[in-house]
What we know:
It is a single chain. By secondary structure, the chain is of the alpha+beta class. Among the domains are: 37-246, Methane Monooxygenase Hydroxylase, Chain G, domain 1 (Up-down Bundle); 417-579, Heat Shock Protein 90, CATH 3.30.565. It contains 14 helices and 7 strands. It has a 5-stranded mixed β-sheet with strand order 2-4-5-7-6, covered by helices on one side. Strands 1-3 form a two-stranded antiparallel ribbon. It is rod-shaped. It binds adenosine-5'-diphosphate and magnesium ion.
Amino acid sequence: MQLKIWHKMIIGISIPSLIAVVGGILTYGYINDVKNRQAYIEIADDLKESVLEVRRNERNFLQYKNGDHHKLIHISLSELTTSLMGVSAGTAEQMGGGGIILLQSAMLKYSDKADNLFDSYNNEQQVINSAKAEGEKLEAIVSRKRIAKELTPSFILKLRLLEKNYIFYRDRQSYLEMSKGLSLIKNMTPMCLDCKPYMKSINRLFDAYRASDTLVSDLNLVGSEMEEVTGRLSFMERQKINSFVDRTQNLLLAALALLCVLGPLFVFKTSKRIVAPIKRLAEITLKIAGGDISLRAPIKEHDETQSLAISFNTMLDNLQETQQSLKESLELLNQKQAQLVESEKRASLGFLVAGVAHELNNPLNNITLTAETMSEDLKELSPEELNDYIKDILMQSRRAHTIVENLLDFASARKSTVMEIQDITRIVNDSINLVANQLRVNNIKLVTELPEKSFYVNGNRSKLEQVLISIFTNAMQAMKDTGTLSVKVQPDTDNKNIQIHIRDTGHGIKESDIKNIFEPFYTTKPLGEGTGLGLSISNTLISEHKGDICIKSKMGEWTAFTVSVPLYEEMAASHKEVAS
Ligand SMILES: Nc1ncnc2c1ncn2[C@@H]1O[C@H](COP(=O)(O)OP(=O)(O)O)[C@@H](O)[C@H]1O
Ligand SMILES: [Mg+2]
């Protein structure tokens, strides 16, 4: 897939955010449900409270059995109905429709039972009154006449007491005792007609009480059912809230865990994907910085780093091209420099040859003179004299040979550019020899101050000679026909250098021109006499020897050059050892 960096970043950030958002939405939904459920709990609690109120009124009604308390039951029932009416169908559905419907039907049943009980209580009162009246009648009959032997007024009184107890307590004990009393009457006088109405009324009282008791237990049952339904509604709502809270908690935990695990994972993966191509670029840059310019950045990604890599590679292509052309230019420059060195050398040679030709004349004249003398006086000469002449000719020949040799040596014999250990004092000496004749011809006095021992430098003989000849030539040209050239070789042991001081008493250099004299092609000499390359080339050659050239001059009086070249340390050290 071709993803840009910002695509990767959006994916990396949006997936953890999505988890957080989904978790948040679900949690919000659950909290909303909890809020609704709280309203349902309030409704359920209201209903429960109303039912409890009904039950409280029920207890009072059972105790006082009067119309007022029966009415209170109905008032509380109608309050309950109002509460129920307030519950919308939707809410009822949400709260578990069954519960509300059950409550409604139980309430109707309860109302009926309460009414029936009220009727039963009213009936009870009539039955009690009639039982009491019949009792009084029987009591009166017994006190007037003896119906049966056992049926005494005291028995009747006892029976009436049982009757009172039963009416008042209406419990099982008093019922059993009352039943037993009635059985006794039956046993004593099975045919007692006067007793029958009383017994009948007591039996009716039994029935009335039984009917009421059944209704009471029915009412109680329905009441409990109502209580149970409302209790269950409230309990269920609370349970639902608890489960919502649990679910929210679990959801939050799950979202948190997912965020903790996936969040860093996605961020890590994304940043890795973003950083990887940059890292690859950095690595390749490091290698290229190390010198391998032929390397190229891989174009793997399709994001913003791709164009970076492409530009980077284009830059490298250009750099490589530039490097190549620089290399070629440098080669060309070296070639040109060599040509310039050569041309300056030829110029110096031209200057030297004039002097050398003159110098060669002397030995050649001497040889000719000696040879002529020998040919004229050959017969008169003794073998010893002949030997002296031949020796003289040989000496003159060797002199001519040395002169030519030196010139050849400077001109071409050592074209090698190899740097090797050189005796600098000897090089200075040989260079002086090359210009010695020229000095003589030009009437220039030479003052040298060369050390007796050798000093060594790591250098190229031909190049060092060319520098010295160049400076000597300039000096001679500045002095024209008279003056003094001083050459002094002096070690500067502090800086581990050897210094060659060359001083002339020529016309000197203008202070403003000093900065120009090392410029290539700068010359103050007429055409044919100067190329303007001598000092510029000398400067380059001495730089190759890690040395330098200093110049001081006083216009119209003198000019002094100091060439400094580092001493070859090992040689210097070994010489020190030898000396010690
Ligand atoms: N010893 C010197 N005395 C006076 N001027 C000098 C001396 N050496 C160099 N110069 C000045 O420096 C210039 C540059 O010298 P150089 O580079 O050798 O070129 P060229 O000798 O061909 O003119 C000379 O033209 C001259 O003006
Ligand atoms: Mg010159």
